[in-house]
Write the structure tokens for this entry.
Amino acid sequence: MAEGSRPTVINMPPSPPPAVRRRGCGLAIELRHVDLRRAGRQVLCDLSLRFEGGHRYALLGENGSGKTQLLKILALHVWPTPTGRELLRHEIDGVGLDPREAKRRIAYLGAELQDKYARYGWNPSVQDLLATGLRGSDLLLELPSVAEQRLVAQMLRVCGIEGLRTRKFLSLSYGQKRLALLARALMGKPDWLLLDEFYNGLDRDCRLRAEKLLETARKRGQAWVAAAHRVADLPPGTSELLQLHAGRLTFRGKLGRRHRLALAREAAERPIRRPPRIAGPGVDGVPDPDAPVLVRLRNADLFVNYHCVLRGLNWDLRRGEHWAILGANGSGKTSFLKLLYGDLAPAHGGVIERLDCPAGTAIEVWKRRIGYVSPELQSDYASDVRLKQLVASGAHASIGLVEPSSAKELATARRWLGVFGLGGAANRRPREISYGQLRRALIARALAHAPSLLLLDEPLTGLDSRQRAAVKQRLEQLARAGSTIVAAVHHLEDLPDCVRRVLRLGSRRAVVAHTMPRRAEHRMKSERSK
């Protein structure tokens, strides 16, 4: 059998009887001696696990440990590598299910699913998106019935997203998309929810809504497997723990309070090594008072897909200042960074001025001076390039490369991949690495060409605690060397220490701009971590 063929599946009748097809009967999933190889690399090694119906599991592990691939195997999106002894079985009351029936009972939610809509240009309205959850399809091929429309309207109310009913999916914020996809999954009443870093990109209000939905589902017997890097990002009610390391199961047991505390301590972001102090503007977040203005906004209104996102922006960014962009999901943080980067422009009458870029300057000239990281960039970068080429493309502010990189550019790319622990992956492709590893490669892409300004949209999403600490230390080094940082985050602990200024977005305006004192910052971080 070729790699990627289906594993041995036993005791699976071609058409399960009606009693077996009922929802909520306790679908169990069993794996025995499961291996997975991708692009010649061992991703999962000899896993033997049984997931009981109605149970709720936490799946923890560092970047590249195999969490996402295990979830995909459970969801029947990926088949184990055939070895002659592997078993993948979905059953109810000892009766095996046909894979097609089992797949309909499982809902996978993660960044890759979210990115799929952008990659293929799927852009349904939110109400049509939820209707596809009833049909078990990616796209709505026929109009929903009146009964289906009622169910969709009910779910929109329950999720608190009625106001997004007619909005196009791709126009939503990252967190709004995530909540809409959860609503879509619940429409199908799945036996299993497979949640891959689900809380990434959610503000406090959206998290509470998601937790309320999951708690209601739990009371009905909903089973799930939740992969995460932070213990705080596990849904309440998660009671069993699985830990992976390098594709192997290292722990299985109950997730009690003692384990939660131990895991929280283990995930604390301790410095790997103290970065050297470099003199220059921006040290300790105090800008040079004579520093030039990098970006100036005056009376700027911002629209995205004819939807007003921000109004009346008046703001200066000076070299050496480091800003946190805060706000709820949908407040315009991502759009604001795109405005600074040059992917969006203010409406007629608004002004944006960029240092050394007089009117008529090609926007690529500005972009080549910027390091940019965002979830959208990660979804866009599905091109068939090697990681060394991905990193080299940062100097050209391009997705992919028009012409081959120079030897110097490739050497620089390899060096920066090594900085983030990806030196051995320089010749691999984005689809052959984990989500967190791809995020580190994109951070390397942003930093490799010594940018004067870094625009970071949730830069640490998908990174384990060690990598979060390493990236923040590297950002501190760049800030001390003179780079300016503007970062949009939901987790305040994801901000490097040099960030002292805050621009808070809400109600379509930049409602607060002030310096964040160290004591207040510490209190906000502590409150957020509770």
The longest strand covers residues 293-304.
